[in-house]
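Worked problem 6 (solution included).
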Amino acid sequence: MSHAISRPQSRASQRPWGRIIPWLAAASCLLLLAAHLTTDLPGHYPLFGALDSETAVVGEATTVSYSPSATEADSATTVVLTPLKSRVAGVSTEKARVDQLATELGVPGLVEVNADRRIDVRSRAQGVVREVHVTLGQEVKRGDPLVTLDSPDIGAARLNLRAKQRELLSARIEAEWRAEIAKNVELLIPELVKRADPGELEKMFVDKPLGSFRGLLVQAYTEYDIAVHEEKRSLELRGQSVIGEHPAIVAEHNRQGLQAALFSAIEQAKFDAARESRLAHQDLKLAESAVVDAAQRLRILGVDQDVQYLLDHPDEVEKTDRDDDITVYRIVAPFDGTVIAKSVVSSQQAAPTDLLLSLADLSTVWIAASVAESDLAKIPNVAGGAIRFATTAYPDRDFEATLLSVGSQVDSLTRTVAIRAQTDNADGALRPGMFARILFDGPVGEPSLTIPSGSLVWVDGHPGVFRPEGADPERLAFVLHPIEPGRQVEGRTVVKSGLKEGDEVVAAGAFVLKSELILQNSPDDD
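Solution. The predicted structure is:
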């Protein structure tokens, strides 16, 4: 009799959960994997979601394939992708090639202040510093006060200007008065010649200024008019034989004499009135010149004046006299800039030779360098040419500048030629005193190994490229390979070392691979 030997069932098979737990574990792994591929972690750009500009966009129906974890990767520098993930990431490769590039010349230089936009602030008059309004490194706007002083020289110049304004006011009133008299005399003379009625003349010119000419002309005209009437009356009486011939002759000669005196007075009055008006006008011009001279003296001392306003409103000098603070001398910023040096303090004596502070507009800076005589032919010699330069402070950033000048002489001691370029500095990144390296493209070409600029990645501050390795079509491996990059020219990066011609590198999608590499090497939160 045979008995079938039955194996004891496992504990898992004996419990209803024994069949469920493996499926739950598998489902959990799939959920964790999906979260790993879709979550946007710091420093990581997922393959399914927000990719960089080189990554293809995938629809929602895309199937997520399994990707080996960091523990399954070949090393800490290898990223393994499935073909699907590689296509989604837009990964493409290209071989390093040799291009004929212009020879690059590097020249050490220095960032300098734009000398055309820098001033050394000094007091133009002797004085004592009352207040300092700025601090070192402060940015100021045009017209902002920098330093206020008390200066006796400024006070004396202001008083002189006010005195000249008073003289101008008097001269202007005098000139206007003389011009009005000359004009009225010109109107009176024709009326006298026409022998207008004296009563009508009085009414016509009663409110018109004539000065001393009123008495002179009216008196002469009245005497002449009386003589005319006397002569007429004498002739009538002589015709009636009332009087003899002699009184009539006397009356005639008297009229003739007074007529001559009248016309003489008219001529003299006309000349004198015009001359006095002309002299008054000349005095006015001299007074205006004196005001301009006094204002310019103040301007030379650093106190700006509106000369035209002073000439147009000399009557306002009385208002300014109530201002007792005539010695105040305020120095203001002539343009927008930054205080780059400061040596002034309150209460110090300030002379025109003392440097108070320095102000510079750092929106543009100069790059100065010296080029060896042997390299002179390699640099552009036309002003306005574009150059590149880099700084120690920003090693990963290239700046552009415009060449201002190339020295016309070679230094006899150093055998170098000075060059100067100008660059915009709106963001304030470049600061005077920084070291720079100016880069020129020489006229002669040289073979250089290049790769696409998009291939270069920086990991932990070190440059490198991803290279495809392995022949497994289902498991694409990309290894981070260190290189020494050079300059960038038209979308290509020169490789100084680390690659050779024909080496295949990732041309597109390198940034995605970098993100995957960082993610798989990051420590687990568990």
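Discussion: Residues 245-300 form the longest helix (56 residues).
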